[in-house]
Amino acid sequence: MELLYLIEEFVKILLNPGVLIVLFAATALGTIIGALPGLTATMGIALLTGLTYKVPVAYTFAILMGIYVGGIYGGSISAILLNIPGTASAAATAIEGNLFAKRGKAPLAIKVTRSASIVGTLIGVLALALIAPQLSRIALQFSAVEYFLLAVFGVLMCGSIVTSDLTIKGWIGGLIGLAISFIGYDVISGAPRFDFGNINLSGGISLIPAMIGFYAIPEVIKALSLVKSGAAPALSEEAATKKLAAAKEKDPNSWLITLKHIPLILRSALIGVGIGALPGVGEDVAAWIGYDNAKKSSKHKETWGTGECYEAIIAPEVSNNAAIGGATIPLLTLAVPGSPPAAVLLGAFMIHNIRPGPMIMVDSPRFIFYIAALILAAVIALWVVGMLLAKPMSSILKIPSVYLMPIIAVLSIVGAYALNLKRFDILVVVAFGIIGYILDKMKYSAAPIVLGIILGTMIDENFRRALIVNKGDPSFFFTNSWISVVFVLIIAVVILKQLLPERIAAKANFKGLYGFIAAAVKKKG
Amino acid sequence: MEKSSLRRADLVFSVFLIFGSFFYFLESLKLFVNPFRRTWEAVPAEAVKDTLTFWYKSPALLPFLVSILLLLCALVLMHIARKEGAKLDFIKKEKIAAFLRNAEFRAFIITALLLCVYAFALIPLCRSYLNVFRGFRGFPFFVATFLYLFAMMMAFGDKQKRHLLKSLLVSLLASGFVTYAFGTLAKIPLP
């Protein structure tokens, strides 16, 4: 039944030329954004969320999903051509992808990663359409206790996994995010909190300006710092064009190459969907775990690092694109974003009065399928756009940061201001941008901070509601339902894993999936 | 950032966090006792008693917990930084001077400064003095954006005449495009 709904929504999109054109254009823009070093899918969605708030809902989500899908794929193009991953999710692809380019096989590598991205996204969409409705039905049984624990789990898990340095930094980020989220009027009592008498703070910190600040401005500063210090990578058009034109002989069919690796694709897609569904973790971690898993299970280990190993470019691309569908599952059903781009999408939903969560199947029963169908249509757009952009991409990639980044800064200011017409939001962008850059230099990831801001209200409200219902007795965490007990146990394991010395943790066998993810992320760091 | 420098930064940041979490704790305490910011004389003893009895309803409950957890995390961070050899021995004149001469730090300062000038000086000033065309409300924004873009491109590009002309042209076209596309076509209010 779910698949029928998905097909119906997909056909509706195909029959709407306006949405289709917008989706194609957005996917092309997303691919360019993803390919340009310093511009990420998250930044693209954050900027466009602000700039499209007046656009009709159907077009808005076509734009945002197109940017999302295109952005995640686009990163692999510069990763292959220039060994500079356009987005963090393409970093794993760069390892082998650039070796293909050095052998004059850049066009083939780009085609294979495109096919892998398409297959990965498709599997992610199927997972979204099939799992999300069931999960939202389960989530209908959630009470305040489960919501509180789910949100705590989200911030904790994200903080534990995405940090490339010390885990404690992820937790500090999450706590800073929570502290920011408490600014403004308290929903339960109506008391003003931490506004220090400033009227601009009494309404709280707006989510989208905060996210633009954390994701866009640090990238602008970082890119321009590289220019100033003379460390900016030379984006030579000549070199990129040479790499693209090098292969004169006929390349084998990229689809045949990709589909020869079906078991690897399925495994990588499962990893992508699973990691994508973890709150705030996202596509880049999925890509690294996909890569790591493919390397460990490869039967041709001797080919890795030679520029001939297709597994090394297929696995991360399938994983990071499957993570799009995975990240959208908790976003739509629990209002808990699975990745940084999904976190920005949550802000976009709220702006357009769409309330994700368990009630979504009651309030807007077709919305999940609509979003899944949009991603599906974006996959087709990606196929076409990928072919069309393959050649001009070498010229696009040479745009120097010195011209591009100041324009991004201007768009950040316009996007943040456009939402609420508040000058204070510009201050938020600039302040959070500067803070975000400093934190980034100290290896604090923006993801737990942003997730803390998003989930702070959910944690606060549900914790107190649960306490009020139980008259201040906290034992309900263990007695409310089996779901809450499972959450409490997972949270306890995650905390203990970090607090206990490694020796004891290993003895207690706290490794499992969590240890595997953490090891892969440490490797990335 | 090198690991030793990173741990020094961690040590400094942990000190900031400790002070920050203390401040947050004190603010939470004020919020707990007097959530609606009445003058302290106007807070009746009954209300304080109620707050203590029904502590779980307080809007300060989670902020309290967060401030305590933040303090604990800051102490752990400080412990790790110190264990890995970080000391506050870099507060020396020559080391600070070397840090200030660092190209990346200077780039950060220029970017942040120009962004602040654009957002808090150029845009409001142009809005106040250049709102002269009734049919072109975006003109002040256009001028402010052009000036900002040009300044940024000149600050970070080389000083050759070719780059100057290119920057002039790109700034003009980009500010014109942003003003027209968002302000006129999409009718998005510009700052």
Describe the structure in brief.
The complex is a heterodimer of chains A (525) and B (191). By secondary structure, chain A is mostly helical. Chain A has 27 helices and two strands.
What distance separates the N and C termini of chain B? Answer: 36 Å
Main β sheet profile of chain A? 2 strands, antiparallel
Mean pLDDT of chain B: 89
Q: Give the helix level of chain A as a range of percent.
A: over 70%
Tell me the Rg of chain B in angstroms: 26 Å
Number of β-strand runs of chain A: 2
Uncertain runs of chain B are none
Principal-axes shape call of chain A: globular
Domain module count of chain A = 1
Task: Chart the SSEs and their pairings.
The complex is a heterodimer of chains A (525) and B (191).
Chain A: H1 2-14, H2 17-35, H3 41-51, H4 57-82, H5 91-102, H6 106-139, H7 144-162, H8 167-181, E1 184-185, E2 192-193, H9 199-202, H10 207-215, H11 217-228, H12 237-245, H13 254-259, H14 262-277, H15 283-297, H16 311-334, H17 340-351, H18 360-363, H19 367-389, H20 393-396, H21 401-420, H22 423-441, H23 446-469, H24 476-479, H25 482-499, H26 502-507, H27 512-524
Chain B: H1 3-33, H2 45-53, H3 61-83, H4 93-101, H5 103-129, H6 139-156, H7 161-185
Helix pairs in contact in B: 1-3, 5-6, 6-7
